[in-house]
Write the C-alpha cells for this entry.
Amino acid sequence: MAEDAEKNAPVAQKRPKAPKPQVVGAKVSVGKPKPKAAPKAAAGAAKTAGAAQKAATGAGAKVKYRVNAAKAVSAQDREADKQSMGQVHKSLAFLGIVTLAYLAYLIFSGQMDVFLSSLSQVDSSWILRGALCYLVYYVIGVSAYVLSVITDPNSPVGVRDLMSVEAAGIFFMNLTPNGMGAAPAQIYRLTRSGLSVGGAGALHSTRFIMYEAGEGIFAAIMLIFRLDYFLNSFGDFIIIGILLFAFKILECVVLFAICAYPKFFSSIGNWVLRFANKHGWVKDYDHWYQVVNNQIMEFSDGFKSAAKNKGDLIGVLVLTLLQLGCLYALPWFVLNAFGKEADLITCLASGSMLELLTSAIPLPGGTGGAEGGFALLFGGMFGAQASAGFVLWRAIEYFLPTLCAAPLLGLRSTSGESINHRFKRYGVRLRRLFSRRGGGKGSDGIKITFK
C-alpha cells in the first residue's frame, strides 16, 4: 500500500519546475514567432508547442519560460522595497556615527583599559553558543511561516522564499527607524514568490499579529515570575517597564479589534485623515487613503482567514514564544562568557523588558533605548564589565544577525512544488521506510533484503 501511494503521489502533486514566480505569465517558447501568421499556421504552432511541452515534461527536457514578474510584483511593492533600502543607507551612516561616539566616550572617560581587559577574559565558547541560539531564533521564525502555508496545496511559496522573508524582517527591522521598512520588504518578497498582493498581506499580517501577541504574553509571564525581583532591584523605575508592557497589551488589543471591526476603524481613520489633510499635516494623502480604505480590510480578511485554522494559529503562537525565548536569553550567554553566575529566568524577564525599551525608541536598532536599558537592567549583573558586556550582547543580538541576514535577502525557491505537496511526499517516503524495517523478517523466519 505504501509503495502504491508513493507511485501515485508524485503524479498528482508535482508541478513542472520553473523559475519563480511560476504562476503568472509562464509560456513555452518554441522558436521565434512570425510577425503575422495565418489562422492555420497559428493553430499548427499551438499544436507544436503543446507537443513540445508534453515531450519536455515527460522526457525530462528543458522547457523555456518567459515569466512576467511585473504582474506578480506590483510597482508599489517594488517602490516600497526601494524606499526601505534607502532608509537602510541612512541608518548605516547613523550607526557609524553612534559607534564612533561610543569609542570616543570610552577613550575620554578612561574606561578603554577596563573595556579591553574585560574582553580578554571572555570565554568565546559561550559567545558561540549565544550566536547559535540566535540561529535557532531564525530557524524557528522560518518554521512559523512554514506552518502558516503548509496546509495550502496550491501555495507557490517555498522554503527558501520564506528564509528570505524572515531574513528581510531581521535586516530591515534592525536598520530602519522603528523597523518601518520590515513590513514592505517582507510583503515584496512574498509577492515575488508568486503570492498575490492580498495573499502576501494576509500571511504577513497574521505573522505580525502573532509576534506582537507573543511579546505581550511572554512579558506577562515574566512579570508574574519576577515582579518581586524588579520591585526590589529597581523600585519605582519599574513602573516605566510596566507601562511599556501595558502599551504592548493595548497594541495587541487594538490589532485584534481592527481585525474584528475593520469598517468601524476605517471610518475613524477616514475622519482623522480628512482632519489632518485639512490642516496640511498629510504629505502623501493618496498613500494614507489607500492604507485606511484598502489595507485595513485586507489586514482583517487575512487574519480572519488564518483564524479558521485555530490549530495552526496556536502552533504559530507557541513557536513565536520559543523564538522570543531565544532572543531574550542572549544576555545570559554573555554573562556566562564573563564567568558570571546568572539565573536564566531573571535574564529572560530582563531581556523581555529590555526589548520593550529598545522597540520604544524610534531610531535604527533602538539606539539609546538599547544602551540605557542594558545599563539599567544588566549593569548590576556585569559590574565593571558592563561596557564590554553590552558590546558583546549587541554583537550577537544586532550586528552579526544583520550582517548574516543581508546575503539571504535574494534567496528564491525554484522547485515549483508547494510545501504541502513536498511534506506529503516525504511522509509517504517515511511510511514506506518504516514499513520496510517493520517487515524485515517474516513470520516464517525468511529474511528479506532490500537493495
In short: The first helix runs from residue 2 to 13.
